[in-house]
Design goal:
The structure is a single chain. By secondary structure, this protein is α/β, with parallel strands linked by helices. The chain has seven helices and 17 strands. Helix 1 packs parallel to helix 2 and helix 3 runs antiparallel to helix 4. It is globular.
């Protein structure tokens, strides 16, 4: 069964080299997900990515197929992103996409086509412990590590997944791509959410929602009305610029209430907190946390992991207390736990 593998190919350099490494000596097939659900530049980019992936497969001498997953992507990732913002949360759609699409719908697509294993270009490592449990470990190149967006993967998924780039640096990957004359060898990396390439979240939400963002009140921490905001989807926790209000002093978004349609402003110091709760849990080395642990925790993708005491206080609830206050912790973001290089698990911040 391990001799047949399907490789997820985005058209970029990482997935091209992943395909090169994973396909050697095996029955392999490249697959590109078609996720674009609208027209314009996004659609054009998606078509080009499919062509680039197919070109790489031709060089490798393996077949290439397209998995049409637009409807699943819209329902499980895009619509979830829009709803979360409307509820005053700050979602990370890449995490939902990995769980529901890449290691959900795409893994099922691979199985339906006779491939029980899937390789991707993620920078992460999978190991197996002495009890046969699959573990998720940070990439050797910590500057490229992507385990934060992979913490939701189950044991069943990990058992069928390969990350060929886990022990490599980006420079090594580009060297291989250039040596193999892959069309993606010098392709730049995307830094934005794939379905919002210009980073304008508010306009995207307005265009893809049945609700119209309504103006509401800016409040101070003690409940005083400071002015009027344009709609809560225009603001994120920790935001300072673009508030559209002048108070004569620096002001930051401290919290949002969808129920009251209010945005509360405060100082930078008001953004720091130690304690939070987490739901929608997934653990990797074990099924439940049976006693409190001190672990490293990340509350944002770009945040450095920091020591925290972690205790499971309910069937689907963790209480986390950082040793040092953390800035701009946001509802809807994911908190991911580490023990050294190994991912313990994580969940959504309540």
């Amino acid at each position: 069964m391990n001799n047949k593998i399907m490789i997820a190919m985005s058209g970029g350099v990482d997935s091209a080299v992943s395909a090169f490494l994973a396909s050697r000596g095996r029955t392999a097939c490249g697959v590109t997900m078609r996720l674009a659900f609208d027209h314009g530049e996004h659609e054009k980019a998606a078509v080009q990515d499919i062509k680039d992936a197919a070109s790489t497969c031709e060089v490798l001498g393996i077949p290439h197929v397209v998995a049409e997953l637009s409807e699943e992507f819209r329902a499980l990732v895009v619509n979830a992103f829009v709803r979360a913002y409307e509820e005053g949360k700050t979602p990370n759609p890449c995490i939902d996409c990995n769980k529901e699409i890449k290691f959900g719908a795409l893994l099922r697509f691979a199985a339906e086509h006779g491939f029980n294993r899937l390789a991707t270009g993620h920078y992460a490592r999978i190991e197996k412990d002495g009890n046969g449990r699959f573990l998720l470990r940070r990439a050797k190149d910590l500057t490229k590590d992507q385990t934060y967006v992979l913490y939701t993967l189950s044991q069943e998924v990990l058992s069928r997944t390969e990350f060929p780039l886990g022990d490599m640096s980006k420079a090594e990957v580009r060297e291989i791509a250039a040596a193999q004359s892959f069309v993606a060898a010098h392709k730049s990396e995307s830094q934005d959410i794939c379905f919002i390439p210009n980073g304008d979240y508010a306009t995207f939400i307005k265009d893809h929602s049945t609700r119209t963002p309504l103006p509401g009140k800016f409040l101070s921490l003690d409940g005083q009305v400071l002015g009027e905001h344009r709609g809560i989807v225009h603001y994120t926790i920790g935001q300072r610029k673009g508030l559209g209000i002048s108070l004569g002093r620096p002001a930051f978004v401290v919290s949002k209430s969808a129920a009251n349609n209010t945005v509360t402003l405060g100082t930078n110091e008001d953004l720091f907190t130690r304690r939070l709760t987490v739901e929608n849990l997934n653990f990797i080395p074990f099924d439940n946390l049976t006693s409190p642990l001190t672990l490293l925790a990340k509350a944002r993708y770009r945040q450095e992991a920091a020591p925290a005491r972690v205790e499971q206080t309910g069937k689907d609830e963790l209480t986390v207390e950082f040793q040092e206050p953390q800035r701009a912790i946001s509802r809807g973001q994911s908190l991911v736990l580490y023990d050294g290089d190994y991912v313990i698990g994580g969940g959504k911040i309540k």
